[in-house]
Amino acid sequence: MRRPSVTVVVGTVLLGVPALIALAGPLLAGPVRSRARPMQPPDAAFPLGTDVLGRDVLALALSGGASIVGLTGAALLMSYSIGVPLALLLAERRAGGILLRALDFLLALPGLLVLMVLAAAGWRGAVALALVIALLQLPAVVRIVRSAALAPGCRAAVEAMTMQGEPWWRIHLGYVGRCVLGPVLVDAGTRLSLVLYLLASANFLGLGLAPSASDWAVLVERNKEALFLQPPAVLVPACLLVSLCTGVNLLLDHALARGNEA
């Protein structure tokens, strides 16, 4: 029996820890309301100390993963669910110039500036935040997938299958879909970090969750002034976010390497 590689083990641990905390943490977390003086160092009552609002950092870390994981997953799922089929359609027709120019305009907009404008206009809530971030990621997703679908090797195979009378779904959903799977997975792994950054920025601006929420991204922004006075208030949620991104990318890289070997 083949032993799992170091990359798989490390990636599984790095991804599994924040994922498990996000799923089971809210069931184990205690109350997250203010219970002590702000920025209290770790002690017997508060193993990780308290944050700038006097809340237990351990309880915040246990309860703050579900929202950030859910919003990130929803934003990525929406952007790829729309972007991949749209890119395959544009690659097939070799057209859609107006749509591509519109996407280029959206791609040129700074994401943080868009979030600031929406915050000033009064757009609030987790649903609106996920939709806006998914829309901001859509142009880049379409361009990456369309470029992969237009690669010379892929197009030559598509033309050959078309001449052989293969049905449309077998060509574009089957063969071309497999061709773009690798770039999509690589892009999703790197885009995860960008989405987390936008979520943290949006929450800090008040566009998404409330500043008092226990979300990991909110905690990093909310407690940044406590970095040197009460480091766990910042480092614990930050390390959980880094672990989540690193674990996902390690496992995706391993899966792609195994696929290339096969």
UniProtKB/TrEMBL annotation:
Subcellular location: Cell membrane
UniProt-listed PROSITE patterns: ABC_TM1
Principal location: membrane
The keyword Transmembrane helix belongs to this UniProt entry's keyword annotation: yes
Pfam families linked to this entry: BPD_transp_1
The keyword Transmembrane appears for this protein: yes
Topology of the protein relative to the lipid bilayer: Multi-pass membrane protein
One GO CC term on file: plasma membrane
Sequence intervals crossing the membrane: 57-90, 102-121, 127-145, 194-213, 233-252
GO biological process, one term: transmembrane transport
Domain ABC transmembrane type-1: 65-252
Domain of life of the source: Bacteria
Family per similarity comment: Belongs to the binding-protein-dependent transport system permease family.
Protein name: Peptide/nickel transport system permease protein
Organism phylogeny: Bacteria, Bacillati, Actinomycetota, Actinomycetes, Pseudonocardiales
